[in-house]
Design goal:
Layout (H helix, E strand, L loop, with lengths): L4 E4 L14 H12 L3 E4 L5 H11 L5 E3 L4 E3 L6 E4 L4 H13 L4 E4 L3 E4 L2 H13 L7 E4 L3 H10 L6 E5 L3 H11 L5 E4 L5 E6 L4 H12 L6 E5 L5 H6 L2 E4 L5 H6 L2 E2 L7 H9 L5
Helix pairs in contact: 1-10, 3-5
Length: 278
C-alpha cells in the first residue's frame, strides 16, 4: 500500500521531551512531502502553534488543530472544517467547572482565554520563549461578567475548552460529571488535563473530513500518536502507529508500535511505511 496522507501528533509524538523536533524527523518528513504525500500536523494545540511547527519542518500540507475542531490549509484563508462550542454550551460548561473550582481555557482560532492567572502567566512565558506561537493573543479572564462577554463576542469562534490541574482527583471527578453531558466530546493528552469539544469532534473525524476533501481512501492514511486524544485518529487510519512512549490504550489498538519520541520514533515509522514502498 502506498500511503497518501500521514497525520502526526505533536506533544509526546513528533516533539521530544525537550519539545523539539529532531533533525532526522525534519529531514524525513520534508522528503516524504516532496513525494506528494500530505504530512499533516494533527494536534490538540491551536492552529497557530501547529502552523509554527509545520513551518519549522518546511511543510505545505494542511493542519488539524484543537483536537480536530479545526481543519485548515496553511496558505489559504478558507477553513476546510470548523466545529464550534456554542455560546449557551460554553456557559453551561463554566457553571459545572465552577463547582470544582476548575479554571478553564477556551480557544478560538487565534486567541486563548484563560481563567487561571498562573496558567495564563506560564503561557505568556512559553510564548516569549517561542514554545507558543507569538501571534496567539492570551487573555486572563478574571470574572463571570467577562466570560459572558467572551462567549457572546466569540460565539462563532470558540472551538475548544481545556482544564489543566495538578490534582488528579479534581480531574477525575470533573471528568465523571462531564461524561453525563451528551453535547460534548471529552478526551485528554495527559493525566492532568481534560479537552472538551462539541459532540462528534475528534482527530479521527477531522482526518476523515480531510481525506474526503482530497479523495483519499482510509487505507491510504497513516496516523501516529501517543495519548488518549489520538485514539480516534489511530482507529480511523488504515495504519495506526503508536509511539514507544504511548499509553497502553493507544498501543492496544495500534497496528504498529514504533520507537519513542526521544529516539526518532516518527522518523523510523515514516522510513518503514513510506520509503520502503518507493
Amino acid at each position: 500500500m502506498k500511503y497518501k496522507l500521514v497525520c502526526i501528533d505533536l506533544d509526546g509524538t513528533l516533539l521530544n521531551s525537550k519539545r523539539r523536533i529532531s533533525e532526522a524527523s525534519k529531514k524525513i518528513l520534508k522528503k516524504a512531502e516532496e513525494l506528494g504525500i500530505y504530512i499533516v500536523i494533527t494536534t490538540g494545540r491551536t492552529f497557530l502553534d501547529a502552523k509554527d511547527y509545520s513551518n519549522l519542518i518546511g511543510l505545505n500540507s494542511p493542519i488539524i488543530a484543537c483536537t480536530g475542531a479545526i481543519v485548515k490549509e496553511k496558505h489559504e484563508p478558507d477553513v476546510i472544517y470548523k466545529s464550534t462550542i456554542e455560546e449557551e454550551l460554553s456557559r453551561k460548561l463554566l457553571i459545572i467547572l465552577k463547582k470544582y473550582n476548575a479554571k478553564p481555557i477556551f480557544n478560538s482560532l487565534s486567541k486563548t482565554y484563560c481563567g487561571n492567572l498562573i496558567v495564563a502567566t506560564i503561557m505568556r512565558y512559553l510564548k516569549f520563549k517561542g514554545y507558543v506561537n507569538r501571534s496567539v493573543k492570551i487573555e486572563f479572564v478574571k470574572n463571570s461578567e467577562r466570560w459572558d462577554e467572551v462567549f457572546h463576542s466569540e460565539k462563532n469562534n470558540i472551538v475548544k475548552c481545556e482544564i489543566i490541574s495538578r490534582s488528579r482527583n479534581k480531574i477525575n471527578s470533573l471528568r465523571k460529571e462531564l461524561l453525563n453531558m451528551n453535547s460534548i466530546e471529552i478526551t485528554s493528552s495527559s493525566n492532568h488535563n481534560i479537552e472538551i469539544t462539541t459532540k462528534g469532534t475528534s482527530k479521527g473525524n477531522a482526518i476523515k473530513i480531510l481525506a474526503d476533501h482530497y479523495k483519499i481512501k482510509k487505507e491510504e492514511i497513516i496516523a501516529i500518536g501517543d495519548s488518549e486524544n489520538d485514539l480516534s485518529a489511530i482507529e480511523f487510519a488504515g495504519m495506526g502507529i503508536a509511539m514507544g512512549n504511548a499509553s497502553d490504550a493507544v498501543k492496544e489498538i495500534s497496528n504498529f508500535i514504533t520507537d519513542t519520541n526521544d529516539n526518532d520514533g516518527v522518523a523510523k515509522a515514516i522510513e518503514k511505511f513510506i520509503f520502503s514502498k518507493y
